[in-house]
Write a structure and sequence with these properties.
The protein has twelve helices and 21 strands. The chain has about 475 residues and is α/β, with parallel strands linked by helices. Strands 4, 14, 15, 16, 17, 18, 19, 20 and 21 form a nine-stranded mixed β-sheet that branches. Strands 5-6-7-8-9-11-12-13 form an eight-stranded parallel β-barrel, surrounded by five helices. Strands 1-2-3 form a three-stranded antiparallel β-sheet.
Length: about 475
Amino acid sequence: MSSAPSSFAPPWLETPTDANALDPAVWPATARRDDAGVLEIAGVPAADLAERFGTPLYVVDESEVRARARRTLTAFRTAAERHGTQARVYYAGKAFLSTEVVRWVTEEGLAVDVCSGGELAVALRAGADASRLGFHGNNKSVEELEAAVAAGVGSVVVDSEIEIERLARVAAARGVVQSVLVRVNSGVHAETHDFLATAHEDQKFGFALTQAEQVVARIREHDALAFVGLHCHIGSQIFGTAGFRESAARLLDVHERLLAGGEVPVINLGGGFGIAYTAADDATPIEELADAIVGIVADGCAQRGIRVPALAFEPGRSIVGPAGVTLYTVGTTKPVTVDTPEGERTRLYVSVDGGMSDNARHALYGAHYSARIASRASDRPPALVRVVGKHCESGDIVVDAEYLPGDVAPGDLLAVPATGAYCFSLASTYNWVPRPPVVAVRDGSARTIVRAITVDDLLSYDVGADHASEGI
């Protein structure tokens, strides 16, 4: 089986000298192989996890999440203090939310960003301080707004004129003043997949910058609303700061004009900081991002002769993504011969017991991942493989291209790193495939933090199943 670079393999994928090696940029800091070659995460062998909890299995390294939360908060607070202001970091719950994760990040000092009534309920059930919650969403229902105001949510990010009027009525009815930010589109396109770039004009989120002053004036007319600042999110999986630089400059132009009508204490620049999914990804260190982004805002304020506002950020993926590893069991392998400009090439299809139902990101975005055999090490030469799932879809791909030892076989455990964000969150039960549980590992122990959804659970929702034995 050829493993030579060619048009068959993506140009960024290098043939490894050791197909067992764990790239520290991609795997949790606690990931290692034991003396038998078995993958361990936080001191827990993958084989033990699979035996105890089954596969597929979402594994989250609690210490990694906590460390990344602390590191992110420290980076932005330090950068803000250097410029005479303050920074708040919200954990973007959409990346992965459970009551345990909420407790982890809030204990480490982060606020939490939610974007639905369900996410709000999870955060509150976890005991989060409602005043440290931000509530997003382009189509919040009246019921969701009522729940947010009743709970005392710290800020609501308004997304439409209709929502402003709804929220004003809800807050007035409860006799409170609700703080709001206005989501605006800076027109800056993040260098990412079109579906992940959220600040261009022709999309569902926010107001155009040209509308901002009119919208803020309307908010200021409502006694039940308090305008506290602008919010802008330019996209996800972003490397570098060029996009943030241009977006911040445009926001500050509007921010300066809004100061004529009253205080504008906050600018929220969103999140979207990228992580390494493969060895080809070069994620920018969070300290470098924080220093650069806060510096950009401070320089812009100095040029305009205005005070640096408090800053807020909303990372999710960069905190929880690298802490997650998904374990699968290989079911079948199948060599497939493909004609290429260099001649016939063979790709080994490795089918696992999960797929697009537990990781939809390749199907949605063409996202790339890495993989390693987790149950053993092998000295066989690397082979080009495609890891696919068990669903009835040709696009059911988990890892589009990777090199694994050529003897990968049925029964092997396979581990896919960097799955902590947007895998569980986007999970489904397509084809009635059960949804995996989430297990947290820390200091050599493991515990379930989200139970699996089983076939019996799914049948319990099927009303017709109740009458099947009656022949109805």
